[in-house]
Amino acid sequence: MSEAQASDKTQSFDTRVAHQVLLDGLEAIRSIVKDAPIARKVEVGSVLWDLGDRVKEVLDEIKQDVRQEAVKELGGQVGTTTIEGDDMGEAAVTIPSASLRIPKGKNIEGIKQALGNRFPFFFEEIVTHKPQKEFEDRVAEVKDPLEQKILLDAVERTELTPRVSFRRNKPSKRDTNSD
After folding, report:
1. What integer is the mean pLDDT of 3-30?
2. Residue 171 has pLDDT above 80, yes or no
């Protein structure tokens, strides 16, 4: 396909119509599935999950091209640019400053020894704390109620949201029931 043919094809794609059709379709799905049985919700969820993955793939390809254009516009320099779509769309692209990091596996203790008291001049040390896996069992073994209170007041329990994922590559019940 020539560049002119590809351009004609993209120009004939009406983004406003496509956007509205997709929004209307999603809203219809939302209203239909609202009171549906769980098996139907799982089926619709798997369809939307698959579409979401495909949308992400296409979007990633588009983002790559937009990044390249932004790098050209900014001459590879740090900054932000906005690239206008041919109708209502726009993309904001920020080229961040390069940053330094210490790669995994680097012998930081050896560097500390070599630099001695000059180490903090070059490196910021960040310390994090998290409760041990056995924290609650260990606290239960503490005899001093004040120490127990201090320990229990230092943490909070967060209930995790169950993770859900869907797939569309499972054989259809219709196909397996027709035997």
Report:
1. 82
2. no
Collect contacts of 28-35 with beta carbons under 8 A, ≥24 apart: none
Q: How far apart are CA 73 and CA 68, in angstroms?
A: 9
Chain centroid, CA 1 distance in Å:
34
Cα–Cα distance for residue pair 7/1, rounded to 1 Å: 10
Q: Residue 102's pLDDT is what?
A: 95
pLDDT beyond 70 at 78: yes
Per the DSSP assignment, residues forming a β-bridge with 84 are: 90
**Tokens 């990633």, located at residue:** 60
CB 45 within 8 A of CB 52: no
Radius of gyration for the alpha carbons in the chain, expressed in angstroms and rounded: 28
Could you give the CA distance from residue 47 to residue 52 in angstroms, rounded to a whole number? 9
